[in-house]
Amino acid sequence: MNNHHAGRRGIAMVTVTGDRVRVGDVVTVGGIPHRVRDVRCVLPARTRLEFEDGNVYVVGRSHPIEVSRAHPVSRLRAGRPRPVVPRTFP
């Protein structure tokens, strides 16, 4: 099997709640993008995001937040043509 596209990653903008932010997500705060280094739950109902640059942001667990998230690129999205299945009619 040819793994020509193995390891390729795409970037998607997704809206998640504070409790669904992941390490590696990029959050824009005040127009400045920050990559998340650590995520911790703190009481009451808050999520503490620590960024790679050392800054910290606390967000409500149910608060919607837009993040940039890396995801694997499927072979079909990577420009490979879809297989053509010949049709047979009776």
What features would you describe in this structure?
The structure is a single chain. With 90 residues, the protein is mainly beta. It contains no helices and six strands. Strands 1-6-2-3-4-5 form a six-stranded antiparallel sheet, with no helix packed on it.
Low-confidence stretches: none
N-to-C terminal Cα separation, in Å? 34 Å
Q: Order of strands across the widest beta sheet?
A: 1-6-2-3-4-5
Q: Element order, helices and strands?
A: EEEEEE
Residue share in helix: under 10%
Average pLDDT works out at 82
Strand content: over 45%
Our count of helices gives 0
Quick one: overall form?
A: globular
How many runs of DSSP E, i.e. beta strands? 6
Give a short account of the largest sheet: 6 strands, antiparallel
Structural class: mainly beta
Radius of gyration: 19 Å
Compact summary:
The chain is mainly beta. The protein has strands at 9-17, 26-29, 32-42, 46-51, 56-60, 64-72. A 6-stranded antiparallel β-sheet has the order 1-6-2-3-4-5, with no helix packed on it.
Question: What labels would you give this structure?
Answer:
single chain, 90 residues, mainly beta, six-stranded antiparallel β-sheet, 6 strands
